[in-house]
Design goal:
Number of strands: 5
Oligomer: single chain
Radius of gyration: 18 Å
Strand content: 15-25%
Distance between the termini: 44 Å
Length: 181
């Protein structure tokens, strides 16, 4: 499974591609940051993020895109920028028919470190260890994008099984409804 992880942000949007399957060693195929100037017009920044993500999609051809789910913060302006960058990543993937998964920060931290309350240093250290890197990726947005991709690779099989079971139960329920009418 090849996953593009996206840690959305207007100034620094972390992007990373990891390949592998749950239970086996993973391989980092690329890591970086799409940057936009803080003083640029919002529309131009969003276009720059789109172009950056499109470049990563073209270059690495991921099967899935994992994006950090935007959560409520105290700074509404930061949340808005993060949500806008997140929407651009989802749009780029969806336009190509690539499935998108959203993972909360605590899900990602728990998957990578074992604790949903881990700090950025712990996440960076575990990403470094899991991918057998010489040093933690910089800036933290890049390490977070790697952690998102790892989280998705490890969680996807279980999530897929749950979705399939839910769909089977829904179909069975609909069949029972038709018979009883």
């Amino acid at each position: 499974m090849r996953v593009l992880g996206v840690d959305p942000g207007l100034t620094r949007c972390g992007v990373a591609v990891v390949e592998g399957v749950a239970g086996r060693p993973l391989t980092m195929l690329g890591v970086g940051v799409v940057r936009t100037p803080a003083d640029a017009e919002l529309g131009h920044r969003l276009v720059a993020i789109e172009q950056g993500i499109e470049h990563w999609l073209d270059e690495h051809r991921p099967e899935f895109v994992a994006v950090e789910r935007v959560f409520s913060q105290h700074n509404v302006r930061t949340v808005m920028g993060t949500a806008q960058a997140s929407a651009v990543a989802m749009l780029c993937a969806s336009r190509r028919g690539i499935p998108v998964a959203l993972h909360t920060p605590s899900e990602v931290k728990a998957a990578v470190t074992g604790s949903g309350r881990a700090d950025k240093l712990q996440v960076g250290a575990m990403v470094t260890r899991l991918l057998r890197l010489d040093a933690p990726p910089k800036p933290a947005d890049a390490a977070d994008a790697l952690a998102l991709a790892i989280c998705h690779i490890w969680r996807a099989p279980a999530v897929n099984r749950l979705q399939q079971a839910h769909e089977q139960a829904r179909r069975a329920h609909l069949s029972v409804k038709k018979v009883t009418r």
